[in-house]
Every structure is written in structure tokens, then in C-alpha cells.
Amino acid sequence: MCNLYANTTAQEAMRGLFKVAPERDRLGNEQPRTAIWPKYDAPVVRLDENGDRELVLMKWGFLTPKTSAKTGRPLKPDAWNNARDDKVASSGLWKSSFAARRCLVPVSAFREAKGRNPATDFWFGLAAEADDDRPPFAFAGLWRDGQPGVDGEEGDWLTHTVVTTVANELVKPVHPTRMPVILDPGDYDAWLDGSESEAGKLLRPYPAEKMRIVRQGVGITSDKDQ
């Protein structure tokens, strides 16, 4: 499961790639993010109330309440940073967002780990272009405003999650079962504003030949060039 990714694409470049007008860029002075973990802020593209694309910051992971089995007292809520493609239309946690609140999650690379003590970190990205060793892309995402059952500040968070599908041949040796859904730019409109049926057809593995491993090693927990 994906629990770490990076987005080092410049803010202006994100606006161009995702066709967001400058006045609907809500990021402020956004800086490159070489490591994005669950419960931390990340840029997300969604449709506003008028159906226009906007860039906003969201915490990564839908939150659900958690209590101690021994004392019954509230604990820090769980963060669900991945949503399975075969559950998004039926699971109570995901289905309303899949129906009405789909988003694009800007990415430059994502990490999967293999083995234990120590694990080897593998960072995956798109095949490099001549002038960009980290071509930007987008995960298929879902979002929601407010976290039902979660008290305090966290209960008011704006959050997103990443949809996953079966692993392709590049990712499979590292993570045998799952990988994030990567969308082609030509499919952004259908994901953001298409029917559930149209969106569901986009939930498939990205072609392995269009990807590469951009970094690997022990303790590589950020996509930062050495």
C-alpha cells in the first residue's frame, strides 16, 4: 500500500498541467514536497461549487474514530490513505466520495518498501523525458470535508485518499498486489466529472513500460536528489 509520495512540481507548472486558473489556486506559496506522509498536507485538484478546477491543500487520509479496547477512551484516529478500486463504489467509507467528490492528486514519485530489518525503499515515477527527470502525474483520488465521529480539530480536516489497483509488472516485484491508480491527462475530466461508470473504467494499472524506478536503497524516505 502506498504510504509515502512526493510532489516536487513547481506551483505554476501544476496550474498549467491541471488547467487551474491562477485565481483558483488556493495553495498560497507552495514549496516542493519531497516526502508526503499520511495526515500531512498535500496539494489536491478538485472541482469547486461552480464546476471549476481549483488547487487546495488537504491532509492525506480519511479519518475514522478509534477507542482503546482496555479503557474505552478515544485514541488518535486512524488515517485511511488508500482506497481499493474494488471497494470505492460499495464501501461506506468511500462510496459517497466516489460518487461526488473525486480529485486529482499531483505526484512526482511514490515509494514502496520491500523486506524488513532493514527494508529497501523503491521510488517509482514516470519514464523520464529529455528535460525532466521527474515528470509530474496524478493519482486518482477521493476527498471529503469533515471526519464523522472524530472530535477536535482533526474532525474538521479536509482530507483526500489515493485509489489503488492491482500492481503492474514494474511494481509487482516490490509490492505484489497493489499500486496507486495513475491517470492519463486525457482522463482527468472523466475522473473529476464523469459518471461512476466512466470513472470506474479508469481504475486500472498504469502501463509498466511508461514507468521506471527513480531511486532505491535503504532509508530513502524522501525523493531528494543526492
Automatic annotation (TrEMBL):
Its EC number is 3.4.-.-. GO terms for biological process: protein-DNA covalent cross-linking repair; proteolysis. GO terms for molecular function: lyase activity; peptidase activity; single-stranded DNA binding. InterPro entries: SRAP (IPR003738), SRAP-like (IPR036590). Gene3D superfamilies: SOS response associated peptidase-like (3.90.1680.10). The keyword DNA damage applies. Keywords: Covalent protein-DNA linkage, DNA damage, DNA-binding, Hydrolase, Lyase, Protease. Belongs to the SOS response-associated peptidase family. This is Abasic site processing protein. It comes from Paracoccus isoporae. The lineage of its organism: Bacteria, Pseudomonadati, Pseudomonadota, Alphaproteobacteria, Rhodobacterales.
